[in-house]
Amino acid sequence: MxxxxxxxxxxxxxxxxxxxxxxxxxxxxxxxxxxxxAGIMQENINTTNMYQHAKEKMHNMESxxxxxxxxxxxxSFKFENRVIKPEDSDIIELSTSIYSDDKKVTxxxxxxxxxxx
Length: 117
Hints:
By secondary structure, the chain is α+β, with helices and mostly antiparallel strands. The protein has one domain. It is 44% helix and 25% strand. It has one helix and four strands; from the N terminus they run H-E-E-E-E. A hairpin with a 6-residue loop joins strand 1 and strand 2 (78-84). The protein is rod-shaped and about 120 Å long.
């Protein structure tokens, strides 16, 4: 009597291991890319916030032109406002800098001196 093996269909262990290695490699690349871009996005958000605070400080300096330093409430940012008044010129330079742990944003503006009436 002759024994007949039924035809077995499916994947071999080697094929499954190769497929898992490919999937694992692809997932590693995808996770690294997502993490990298999330870091870039956070850095851009911080830079945008720094520019917004710098614009606000610059706007405040237009009405009150004094040197000042301090910390911005609710954030980890520090600021420095500087007023440069050349003696023989009718122009004042306003400068505001916002500092974070690893970045600095500076805005400068030239304005005419206000003549007292």
